[in-house]
Design goal:
alpha/beta; 2 domains; Rossmann fold; 4-stranded parallel sheet; about 15% strand
Length: about 350
């Protein structure tokens, strides 16, 4: 195994990082088996992966060891640093995981559809279970015309989000030219830092909107909730490349529970955009169009004293993304898997 890692490194950092997700799971499975109590057995192996496949590969090995049903939970389509895609050994490994799995859980319908079609799976085998918000849908407090008006983006800014992020600042500059009177009141507040923050500050200075920009590093959970409560409009910024279209930023679901207007910077054809628009809270202007985004921001500003009346959550639609709804979906799936697990050991 050590020799293999040495060969992977010789072929470059990108190849090495791809191959690690195939090599490390074997060791992870061995560690888990040694740490697991000897007199008990798991009922289900539930393996979670986000940007790589390390988790599901480890889960497959454990499933073979314990002879238990194996669930793959995939938060996003796997991505690779050089866009070359996975090497053949990783593709074959993923195919084996799909064939061995008792169920596949995704966090978007679009990724579920892709997997069902690509691997010719029955619909019930791939189960979309969205991320969620907690509690009830809130009712925002009325806003006074003299209060600050805050557009909030939570989450790190990366240079790969660059075009959408730049469009946001350019739209803000256009808004201030259209309506100079709003400039002292509007704030664009960014939480989370990230490698794109310095670039964002530089561009804000070039566009003469620095006074409206407020950047904070990552904050504790309690402060994050306070920031959500204080904001007027919540921003969701997606990566611009089409390979990210099957992803939905997790913050979108948390935002839905606030009952506040959500401004989405994403392609209108993506699943995230559809959810925003159907929720009653979302506005998704024409993708990449500075003028259209500026107009949407202006409309939000003009409606600042009656935002809740203009942007009302479709309660029935939004509740499907609540944590209670997610628990119900997981419970149904686990009951189905428990029956399979019992069948494997003769009804233990």
């Amino acid at each position: 195994r050590r020799a293999n890692r040495g060969l992977w490194k010789l072929r470059g950092k990108a190849h090495y990082s791809r191959m690690l997700q195939f090599g490390w799971p074997i060791r992870t499975a061995m560690w888990t088996r040694r740490a697991w109590p000897r007199d008990t057995f798991p009922d289900v192996i539930w393996a979670i992966s986000s940007s790589n496949l390390m988790g599901v590969f480890a889960g497959r090995y454990l499933s073979k060891i314990y002879q238990r049903p194996f669930v793959m939970e995939l938060h996003d389509p796997p991505l690779y640093p050089d866009d070359a895609g996975p090497p053949s050994v990783v593709r074959r490994g993923f195919s084996r995981c799909v064939r061995q799995s008792a169920a596949i859980v995704t966090t978007t319908h679009s990724y579920a559809r892709y997997l069902s079609q690509a691997y010719k799976l029955p619909d019930e085998h791939v189960v979309p279970i969205y991320l969620s918000y907690r509690g009830d849908i809130q009712t925002p407090l009325p806003k006074r015309a003299t209060d600050r008006f805050v557009f909030l983006h939570a989450g790190s800014l990366t240079t790969s989000r660059g075009k959408n992020a730049r469009t946001l600042l350019e739209a803000l500059a256009v808004l201030f030219k259209k309506r100079p009177s709003c400039q002292p009141h509007i704030r664009l507040r960014l939480l989370g830092g990230g490698e794109g923050t310095a670039e964002f500050r530089t561009l804000a200075a070039q566009l003469h909107v620095s006074d409206a920009l407020e950047c904070l590093d990552e904050v504790p959970r309690e402060q994050f909730r306070a920031e959500l409560d204080a904001a007027d409009v919540l921003l969701v910024i997606k990566y611009v490349e089409q390979k990210y279209d099957m992803q939905i930023p997790g913050k979108l679901f948390e935002y839905l529970g606030t009952g506040k207007p959500i401004l989405g910077l994403m392609r209108r054809t993506t699943e995230g955009a559809e959810i925003l628009q159907r929720s009653g809270l979302g506005t998704v202007p024409e993708f990449g169009q500075v003028e259209a985004l500026s107009q949407s921001m202006l409309e939000l500003w003009d409606n600042r004293e009656r935002l809740h009346a203009v942007y009302r959550a479709d309660q029935d639609y939004v509740r499907q993304f609540s944590s209670d709804a997610m628990v119900d979906r997981v419970d149904l799936l686990l009951n189905r898997l428990a029956a399979k697990s019992d069948a494997l050991d003769g009804g233990r």
